[in-house]
Amino acid sequence: MQIINREDGIFVKKAEGTDVTYYLFPEYEIHYNEVAPGTIQQWHHHEKIEETLFIISGEIEAHWLENGSKQIKILKFGDIARVENTPHTFINSSNQTVKFVVFRLILDGKDKREIIKTDKFIDNV
Question: What is the pTM assigned to this prediction?
Answer without folding.
Answer: 0.90
